[in-house]
Fold:
Amino acid sequence: MKCLTMMLAVAMLTGCSGFVSKQRAIGGSSSEGSVDDLTLASSADSISLNTTVPPPFQSSSIFSMQTLLAGLLNVYAPEQLNDKLFMGGWLGEADHSRRDDRLYVSQLVNGSWQAPTPVQWTNADHVEGYVPGYHANDPSIVHRSDVNWEYMYYTGLPNQFTANLAQIVSYNQVGFAASSDGGRTWTDGGIVIGQNNGIDLSGAWAPSAILNNGEVWVYYHTGAGCNFIDCHLNGDGEPTTPLAPRVLRSRLDINGWRMIGTNEIKNVHGGSLNLTNVNIQHAFGRFWLAANTPDLLKIVLYVSDDGLNFTPFDGGDGVLINGGDNMVLTPGLQVLSERSVAIQFGFAPKGQMSGSIQQWTFSLN
Structure:
């Protein structure tokens, strides 16, 4: 089966966070997009911006586009913590040959992001950037100002469930780590949201965390559910009847790991929010959620007053970035003001891997 076919199949199932690297491991091309590719793909002919209708905003306009990192093999899921940019995937061929996803961090020095290096662990059994027994990706960071600690939440796919596509899209979970030195080193605490996410057995994929009301709220999307339903695999071993991705929120104790409860996030019509790779922020009296559409070709922006019921920012489809044939992967969201946001994302030109991290800044009108 051709790699692009698999990429699209996975996109239709759940979105690629935690899987872009793995789908390439199954026979994909290792070519990466160049700066020229990105410039072309960023033109009106390929990536378009959405400007639609009513509440709470009416339209968006872009006022800056920047390449933060380039020359990467396959890296995405950017998450910024002050002068550090965390991400996951494969930095180069050495990581690619090992196959396991790896966690990285880039340092901002004199206005420029430096080459990423693997995350450093204090755990004696951990190799830098890797989590033993898991493919680890999609880092999300929150800062506890009362004790000056950082918490990290990441996707953990157990290594024993990487034999076929049905397993890869069904067994993702969320792990937890903590840092007391500003994110320079981390102590891994293991899985905190397992296959049973508090609602069903569809797991938890691509977490995004915030602190709210003395709790940690972790948002994520669910898996295909092939571990507890019959997904009717086709001749290539692809699930043909998976569950649609849904966005859930799990509330954790302020200690970062004890589960309190889980809720399903709803759309404006009261139905499931069928998005992937969500990134949540709470700022200026509003919850903001950036996410991929399940095909990974668009990035949307939704807003909410309560963190449970979300509506497109523009009253339309909520699309900020339309990648055309190019994947715009696992957005990181920064809310700059009441009417401006920055979106960081991995850019994968058509048929290629995510060779760069981009940042586009928007005004909302």
